[in-house]
Amino acid sequence: MTKTSPKTWIITGSARGLGRAILTAALENGDNVLAAARDVSQLADLKALHGERLEPFALDVTDEARTAEAATATISAFGRIDVLVNNAGYGHFEAFEQKYPTDFRAEVETNLFGVVNMTRAVLPFMRKKRAGHILNVSSVGGRVGTPGLAAYQAAKWAVGGFTEVLRGEVAHLGIRIVSLEPGGMRTDWADTAGNSAPNTVLPDYAETVGATLARIRAYAGNEVGDPARIAQLVLALAKRSDLPAHLVLGTDALASFDAAEATRQSDHARWLDIGRATVFGGPEGEALTALLPPD
């Protein structure tokens, strides 16, 4: 049996949670990894274990110049870039009205523009060798709407759209891209998001944001998503040429997605006639508005 050559990965947000699970799986597979994290001291144990196959790299993905340096550092250390895992991200739970604009923008900068920056940095190298895999760790939150997560989910929706557009631009260059969309995983994400919430939710949002926050806090520690299994899947996806645009992961995520998709399809059918009518030659005046569904 022919032994495959080790792959070279860049993994952002690699010090904790799913990122660390993917990093560990790649290293145990014999691959080389530039492990990007804000605090690389958390990678010391893996560095001691895996030596030169692990290159820790301090990175804030919102720093465009630094993301470019991460790509060139990978080439310097390992000579190639085969796989990029855009995993860095965070979510803070808060009613949109209560969220400071600077905090909203900061979440979007990390969760969306971090993906954009890192992808831009690696594309020239992947394009040159006509091969590469980019796995964007999004969320089922990029396919549904959850009260209290406006900034996080707006960014994740955008990641899904960015993934679809870029796939169309680079598929002929041998570059494969997928948006991974997990539900709840047993990491510290839920604790971090829930504990970031303000002490007081405005009473008018108690039934929406407040209720969702209570569910998230109750779910913490009981999530069905297994980071180790997702990491195994990521390794397998990095070998495939037929990736989907979106891959929803976890029974909870699939249930949420299916419910949201059913609502979208119902709305689409209900408003279809009026949508078709807004073209040249279509009905006008009362004949047009008569096509609106009952209010």
List the topology elements:
Blueprint: E1 8-11, H1 17-28, E2 32-37, H2 44-50, E3 54-58, H3 64-78, E4 83-86, H4 101-129, E5 132-137, H5 150-170, E6 175-182, H6 189-195, H7 206-219, H8 227-237, E7 246-249, H9 251-270, H10 272-277, H11 285-289
Parallel strand pairs: 1-2, 1-4, 2-3, 4-5, 5-6, 6-7
Describe the structure.
The structure is a single chain. The protein folds into two domains: 242 residues, Rossmann fold (3-Layer(aba) Sandwich); 44 residues. Strand 1, helix 1 and strand 2 form a beta-alpha-beta unit. It is globular and about 70 Å long. With 295 residues, the chain is α/β, with parallel strands linked by helices. The chain is built from eleven helices and seven strands. A seven-stranded parallel beta sheet has the order 3-2-1-4-5-6-7, with helices on both faces.
CATH topology of the largest domain: Rossmann fold
Strand count, sense and barrel status of the largest sheet are: 7 strands, parallel
CATH architecture of the largest domain: 3-Layer(aba) Sandwich
Compute the number of structural domains.
Answer: 2
Radius of gyration: 21 Å
Structural class given helices, strands, pairing?
Answer: alpha/beta
Shape descriptor reads globular
Number of helices: 11
User: What order do the helices and strands follow?
Assistant: EHEHEHEHEHEHHHEHHH
Supply the CATH superfamily name of the largest domain. Answer: NAD(P)-binding Rossmann-like Domain
Number of strands: 7
Termini separation: 66 Å
* Helical proportion, percent range: 40-55%
Indicate the proportion of strand residues.
5-15%
